[in-house]
From TrEMBL:
This is Citrate synthase. It comes from the Bacteria. One of its GO terms (molecular function) is citrate synthase activity. The lineage of its organism: Bacteria, Bacillati, Bacillota, Bacilli, Bacillales. It comes from Pontibacillus yanchengensis. Pathway: Carbohydrate metabolism; tricarboxylic acid cycle; isocitrate from oxaloacetate: step 1/2. GO terms for biological process: carbohydrate metabolic process; tricarboxylic acid cycle. The keyword Transmembrane does not apply.
């Protein structure tokens, strides 16, 4: 058997033409993330990830209209969201369960033809932000807000969350965040989705499994913990002492470090810029200043770069988004990548089944229970 690599570090487990990380540069289907972050809409990125080419105007209009038609969620799903223990259930747990329930209401859930899978991809992508925002409102005792067909995906997210049409700057920030989080090669949640559907299980199962993986604090769950850390620190002048103590206790600093990037995560600078701008506008520059201090300290003392989760925290906080909705918002975006990978996996499938090196006891003799 081959040598074991803990955490599968450096192991190439599949071919893919969706996104790449080479020399610390991230591309979606060959387009650099910096270009996409500056210029593209999230809908364009969805099209790009699913089709490996930028859409023409009519192709983009078609996708937007398909998504708009599918954004509403069945009343059963709303009733389900209402039935959770609203004071304790984390929105990521609610989302994981709700996506699974969406599958129960999709007659095509187990139809494996390509066209049915593409229709389901549109349905899931369209409904995911409706589920997140509906849950966010329901737990505050508010009714879900129906999406508006004339709004962009990013604008609809904020509209359904807050019940009022967002300002241009807010839409721009959410759109950029959605573009930046959409795909990232074979990260843990995407790998989870691919492992799941490689058994020829259905798309809803793949997305449900991926949400479960994204939820963890070493992955998407880090963005909520970054804000928790900044809140705990509270004051710029206390940041370095706080971090030193965490490091002395061998605790990890959330939003720092990455399995693949060595010099830095190319997405972080876009979020850093947004954080600087938005925290200034909202009169809360301390969150940005504190983040810069932490980033510089960790870079200097541990050689670790900030990852995508680090500055997204102060960006989302400045937009007034509840801290436990940060990871669900990540999921809304990453669903586009998960779906692209699931469809790619189906196209050239083989069961994913690695080996484990057995290190337990050998040659044991069975003893009857009365003799143990
Ligand atoms: C969207 C995303 O998923 S981006 C990642 C989001 N996750 C986080 O921000 C959580 C914090 N970061 C981490 O836990 C890690 O850097 C990960 C999970 C991202 C990458 O992990 P790995 O590649 O497995 O690195 P690993 O955890 O083995 O760390 C290697 C060394 O760097 C240290 N290290 C890595 N990240 C950090 C951190 N954030 N804070 C402090 N030390 C760290 C480890 O303690 C370890 O040190 P040691 O060799 O002295 O024991
Ligand atoms: O690629 C990873 O390991 C984690 C990450 O940054 C992402 O999923 O965006």
């Amino acid at each position: 058997m081959m040598a074991m690599t803990k955490g599968l570090e450096g192991i190439v487990a599949t071919e893919s033409s969706i996104s790449s990380i080479i020399d610390d540069k991230l591309t979606y289907a060959g387009y650099n993330i910096d270009d996409l972050a500056q210029n593209s809409s999230f809908e364009e990125v969805i099209y790009l990830l699913w089709n490996k080419k930028l859409p023409t105007k009519s192709e983009l209009d078609q996708l937007k209209s398909d998504l708009a038609k599918e954004m509403s969620i069945p009343q059963h799903v709303v009733e389900h969201l209402k039935s959770y223990d609203l004071s304790t259930v984390h929105p990521m747990a609610a989302l994981r369960s709700a996506v699974s329930i969406l599958g129960l209401h999709d007659e095509e859930a187990d139809v494996m033809e390509d066209e049915a899978n593409q229709r389901k991809a549109v349905r899931i992508q369209a409904k995911i932000s409706t589920v997140v925002t509906a849950f966010a409102r329901i737990r505050k005792g508010q009714e879900p807000v129906q999406p508006k067909e004339n709004l962009s995906f990013a604008a609809n997210f904020l509209y359904m969350l807050n019940g009022e049409e967002p300002k241009d700057l807010e839409v721009e920030a959410i759109n950029k965040a959605l573009v930046l989080h959409a795909d990232h090669e074979l990260n843990a949640s995407t790998f989870t989705a691919r492992v799941c559907v490689a058994t020829l299980s259905d798309i809803y199962s793949g997305i449900t499994a991926a949400i479960g993986a994204l939820k963890g604090p070493l992955h998407g769950g880090a963005n909520e913990r970054v804000m928790q850390m900044l809140t705990e620190i509270g004051d710029e002048d206390k940041a370095i002492d706080y971090i030193k103590e965490k490091l002395e206790n061998k605790e990890k600093i959330m939003g720092m470090g990455h399995r693949v990037y060595e010099t830095g995560d190319p997405r972080a600078k876009h979020l850093r810029e947004m954080s600087s701008e938005l925290t200034k506008i909202t009169g809360n520059s301390k969150w940005y200043n504190m983040s810069v201090k932490i980033e510089e300290f960790i870079k200097e003392n541990k050689g670790l770069p900030a990852n995508v989760d680090f500055y997204s925290a102060s960006v989302y906080h400045s937009l007034g988004i509840d801290h436990d909705l940060f990871t669900p918002l990540f999921a809304v975006s990453r669903t586009s990548g998960w779906l692209a990978h699931i469809l790619e996996q189906y196209q050239d499938n083989r069961l994913i089944r690695p080996r484990a090196e057995y290190v337990g006891p050998k040659n044991q003799t069975y003893t009857p229970i009365e003799e143990r």
